[in-house]
Amino acid sequence: MIDDKVCLCFWKKAAGILLAATSFLIVSCSENMKELSPLTIDDLGISIPDGNSREYSYTDKNGGFYYGMTSTDDWGDWYAGWNINAKRIFADYRLYVDGERLLRKDAHTTVYPDRLMRHYDKAVETFCLLDEPRLLYVCVDSIQGNQISLMLEGENVTDVRKDGNSVVYTAKESQENVVRIAPVKDATIEFTDSIMTVPASSGGFLIAFGTEDDSMNAIDDFRKEGERWLAERSQRIQSLLNHNPLKTNLDSLDHALAWIMLTNDQLITHQHGGYGMYAGLPWFTDFWGRDMFISMPGAVLCTGQFETARDILTSFARYQDTVSTSPTYGRVPNRLNLEGILYNTTDGTPRFVMQVHDYLKYTGDTAFVKEIYPSVKIATDASLRLYTDEKGYLTHADADTWMDAKRQSKYPCSPRGNRAVDVQALWYTQLMNAADLARYMNREEDARCWNDAAARLRSNFERDFVDTATQFIYDHLNTDGTGDTQIRPNAIYALELISDSNLKMHETKEVWERLVYPWGVSSLDQDDEQFHPYHEQWHRYHKDDAYHNGTIWLWNNGMAMQRMIENGQADIAYTLFRNMNRQALVEGAVGSLSENADAWPRAGQTWVRRSGTFLQAWSNSEHIRIWNQYFLGVRPDMLNHSITLAPQLPSNVKEVDSRVNIGDGILHMIISKEDANGIYHYEWDGAPVTLKLDIDSYQTLNVPVSTGSSVTAKTDGTRMTVEVSDAFGKKTANHVAELDVAKLEKKKLQDAYFSDTHFAEPSYRENIKSMSRYFDPPLTYQSVE
Questions:
Q1: Where do the Glycogen debranching enzyme C-terminal domain residues begin and end (predicted)?
Q2: pTM of the prediction?
């Protein structure tokens, strides 16, 4: 029960519980390896500078989220405030002390991963959600006054009435439910002119949503269990930090990656009886197959959330179209929402199979193969029988790729039918991954069939998709077989199908210099007549016309950086990576990467305006993936009991101490590097594996290790010496790797080729076709020109 003698800000007690739990986790995780203290929730607090205001969000992991502005009073965005199951509940609230409004613009505000705190002159406000319960906690303490008051804002609550010691509103968009407000500690209330007033000793306010009874029960239960609920939520968030610790010589890098991981985790939620990921906040609160499978490596595999990954795959497989006469037979949903299922994409299904394979590479969970194999087989055989042409290419409609915008839901804005370059790369990978699984199932006929199909596609690809005279890779093949020459970022997803290493370098540099701006990857070259420089410019054109025709898409940053790193250009890649870290820490939504941005800064600006969703799953996830798999270079293959370690740290990252969850173990790495001299120390506590050391330009070494082993590689510019020790510290093996002549020559060529690489630069000009018209009044979503 509540202690009436203390101000009821449960957070203070919950924080003590959290600290104890965190200490236990650190010790328990460190028993067999050197201690690495993870960042704490409190370490990550971001203070908002005076005069600034930033977006923030929290979710309840179960269909509800709150979207706010830190320092803005009377904010009225369409999705402002509390949203539950795609319904808007209310927009915001106001607080008062003794009738005087507490203005956010005058408060000192700090955003933490689990709560927001505003320090006013007369009070301190702490705001947070809870996991699962439909309840908001607005703690008000350190009050200089006798009474505190709260008023809801927004047009989505109506029919307000006093109900005992609470106030009840009807939720307009969910009229079977109510919004109930009550003091944290039960007390007599006053209610006048939509303002609820309680004694200062009440501790603040609880805002519950549900039926009349459910909302009251939630408040009663919080009064009994609030400390535990708050502590459990904070422990869950802290646990993710504990299991994914990172310490480098750059605090901004450590903090940005922690924040991006935690805001991304907000999107992992329950719906349709299982786990999934929202595509983005505030309006993509559905499970989008394509987005979810793109996001899975960074969101749940790199972060070691393997049970969640397994649940996502099995949950989504239940909704596969298994009706053999259906026009979308074999596909998994592109969109799974509360109203129904849409199968309107061709790339979601290959990515589903790819994520099954990726999950197995991270976990070695071969028992899962038997469970999921029927879905993989249907998906692969259906595509072979129904959707491929005589050359083995996967065919599709104009808007059935990730560039899927349609005006009035009818007219594709960036038609890419009927054989997109990235779709062929995904289809090839699906075939190869499916064949791997078939061999695990001893289904040799399936494996042979799918391998043959992959070989047929590959043998045709360079002939049909590459103009060797101009060194150009087509974005897609038209229905008549001609190649489309628009410069888009899609070809960089297909470089595994290119055998010419010079062409791969050429495509990487071409995309970087024509499409990769300091703020992200544009969807279309600015010299194309379809180019739209700004995502939203309603006086000039419909927003959907710009969506994939110039607008920046941050998720493509991942592959652009990967290709640079594969070409030994970690520093070039890191310039973009660092800019995204800056966005998460000091711009836009706290801790988040947006969906989109303009391609060009607007008049008087030096940086672009963000657009689309303020928190986008695949933007965050690809950022995490690139750090783990390519900068740190940790790429597991637990199906074959091996882990590739190919670190390529940028030159200003001198020290790294990190842990990565793989299979049944944890890989702890400590890297210290200065120019050619480096120490790479790895500790492994899982089942025996082979560590494939692919470090700098030294010969690659395959080093078998057992449980508890450690491997230390030292480089001096001429050779790499490697020592292996067992769990007791006893030296068990020594290796020496000389410089690899082929690697050295390759690196020399790459460095020379990319030496003058630069970002794309806006080429402002007057004669842009997309800007040639002016509409007054401006266009709307419903406009038909």
A1: 267-624
A2: 0.96
